Amino acid sequence: CVRLCPALWGHSPQCPLSLAELPPSEFMQVADSTWLVLSVVSNGREPPGCQATGVTKIARSVIAPLAEHHVSVLMLSTYQTDFILVRERDLPVVIHTLAGEFDIYKEESGECVPVTCDDVSNGFLKPKPLASPTLHPVQSPQTRFCVLTVAPDTLPAIATMLIDVLFYSHSPPWDAAPGSQDLDSITFFSFSLIDGYISIVMDADTQKRFPSDLLLTSSTGELWRMVRIGGQPLGFDECGIVAQIAEPLAAADISAYYISTFNFDHALVPEEGIAEVIQLLQQRQESGR
To answer: Where in the numbering of this chain does the CASTOR ACT domain appear (predicted)?
Structure first.
């Protein structure tokens, strides 16, 4: 099933993050949209281990159909699950697209209420045929990353270190041009706190600065490599960016941890599979020319 959560962020008076409370700043850019969150919940009919984890498990059933219907999405993988953000104005198209495959629920006052196509039929427009999507360049830095979580009650013990890593020690110069970073070794740190669950992505060298007994990872402790999508900021109006990465990985049963950001998209894949991933994506680009 698909669970539709309340608005998460965006330029809207209804946004629960109270964006209006932030002081105006020439350095802050805000996307002119309100975004809703979709989470995909297994119905239990698929046997464990039948397909890859991460964004690839929903590539065919959610990401690809939305791309075909010209719906732009933001992907946010976390340690616990994956979320798809869609613009509120696209909700009628999203519901009509997914209703044939999923049971869809919306969250109201903490309760999940079924949603039908009739609930959002007003304003629904059938999508126009799309031109071939732009195939964006992909780059793979040599940096090795860790995907971690931490128990909320231990967060104060690493709070000072988190602040230093987030805002000081690894911050690029304020006047650095976008995309000017040397991709042989990329600086990337992601922290998310959703419903009390914490997810962290950091490079292997940064992980050594934290107490090892407080950072939790999978039993295998695997390292990840990154594929960065886009040679320039992607924007929010183009669709199919996530699909062009997720679909070939899903076809090859390769797990991926996907994070969309304001400027670029990033897919993390297990380190031992990076060569195969690069080959798959290069073949896709060549076939699309």
So the answer is: 31-98, 221-282
Domain of residue 183, residue span: 138-231+266-288
Paired with 107 in beta bridges are 112
pTM: 0.79
Round to whole Å and give the CA distance between 65 and 205.
39
Q: Would you state the pLDDT for residue 160?
A: 94
In a domain, 171, yes or no: yes
Count of domains forming the chain:
1
Token output for 279: 């080959």
Phi first, then psi: what are they for 166, rounded to 5°?
Answer: -70, -40
The amino acid at 45:
R
Q: Along the chain (289 residues), what's the average pLDDT of each consecutive run of 10 residues?
A: 62 47 72 82 49 71 89 90 90 90 85 76 50 74 93 93 86 50 74 91 93 83 88 70 87 90 89 92 75
Yes or no: say if 75 and 82 are a contact pair by the CB < 8 Å rule.
yes
CB 152 within 8 A of CB 79: no
Q: How far apart are the C-alpha atoms of 141 and 125, rounded to whole Å?
A: 41
